[in-house]
Amino acid sequence: MAASDSKTLLKSDAVYKYILETSVYPREHECMRELRLLTAQHPWSIMASSPDETQFIGMLLKILNARNTLEIGVFTGYSLLATALALPSDGKIIAVDKNREYYEIGSPIIEKAGMTHKVDFREGSALAILNELVAEEKNEGNFDFAFIDADKVNYLNYHERVLKLLRIGGIIAYDNTLWSGFVVASPDEPLSEKDRELAHATREFNKAIAADPRVEVSHLSIADGLTLCRRIA
Ligand SMILES: C[S@@+](CC[C@H](N)C(=O)[O-])C[C@H]1O[C@@H](n2cnc3c(N)ncnc32)[C@H](O)[C@@H]1O
């Protein structure tokens, strides 16, 4: 995969290819490779996380000793499989997507990887399912990690709910927080209506997160921008 075919904001195709070929592909789990190649054939393949990003998330989960996680936005399950592979055998992921058909594309590969028992897939609107989770007292502070990768205009709504579910010291990772670099687009730049709306929502989200005293923040330029929020209060 060259930089030009992917979401990376790295300027050099050659450097991105070098990273993938040197440090990512040689260590990639065979089922991650299979799911990546299968997803690449989908007309919406651009929605999947990049291989360097899923590798990073896998390591982060291990550093955290994560056991209970949440994923908002599953698509074919590429980041979900990376998460499942990084969790211990009794780890659990509540994985939410409004479209079960997408998840079913990748679920045979998740099964083949022996990871199905870790996945609790819930079909529906992320906001409704987060509200249900928050309403159950046993979920308060019960999650070590959340990956938020759907419905960007609702990120701040998700943030309020996920903070209630996350333990102190747990991490929320928000994807696409640089929105193809359009967060710095000038008002006269010829963007589509959708990109203009999402760039605006992303800027508002980034501003709010930077000022939120309940979390520490690290804004990474990996893939399309990944913001880590570590809950401290
Ligand atoms: C960017 S894709 C997720 C990609 C996946 N995390 C990966 O890395 O392969 C976003 C997904 O979110 C789902 N989605 C969008 N809006 C949603 C909503 N409001 N509630 C639940 N799922 C939603 C879409 O169906 C889509 O599968």
Structure notes:
Helices cover 42% and strands 19% of the residues. A seven-stranded mixed β-sheet has the order 3-2-1-4-5-7-6, sandwiched between helices. The chain has one domain (3-231): Rossmann fold (3-Layer(aba) Sandwich). By secondary structure, the protein is α/β, with parallel strands linked by helices. The protein has helices spanning 13-24, 30-39, 51-64, 78-86, 100-112, 126-135, 155-165, 193-210, and strands at 68-72, 92-97, 119-123, 143-148, 166-175, 215-220, 226-231. The protein is globular. Strand 1, helix 4 and strand 2 form a beta-alpha-beta unit. The model has no long low-confidence stretch (mean pLDDT 96). It contains eight helices and seven strands; from the N terminus they run αααβαβαβαβαβαββ. S-adenosylmethionine is lined by residues 47-49, 73-75, 78-79, 96-99, 102, 125-126, 149-151.
Put the structure in a nutshell.
With 233 residues, the chain is an alpha/beta fold. Helices cover 42% and strands 19% of the residues.
User: What gyration radius follows from the Cα positions, in whole Å?
Assistant: 17 Å
What proportion of the residues is helical, as a percent range? 40-55%
CATH superfamily (homologous) name: Vaccinia Virus protein VP39
Run of helices and strands:
HHHEHEHEHEHEHEE
Average pLDDT works out at 96
Number of domains: 1
Uncertain stretches: none
What is the CATH topology descriptor? Rossmann fold
Terminal Cα span: 40 Å
SS strand fraction = 15-25%
Structural class: alpha/beta
At CATH level 2, the architecture is 3-Layer(aba) Sandwich
- Shape verdict: globular
Find the count of extended strands (DSSP E, 2+ residues). Answer: 7
Largest sheet descriptor: 7 strands, mixed
Number of helices: 8
Strand order of the largest sheet: 3-2-1-4-5-7-6
Ions and ligands: S-adenosylmethionine
Assigned CATH class: Alpha Beta
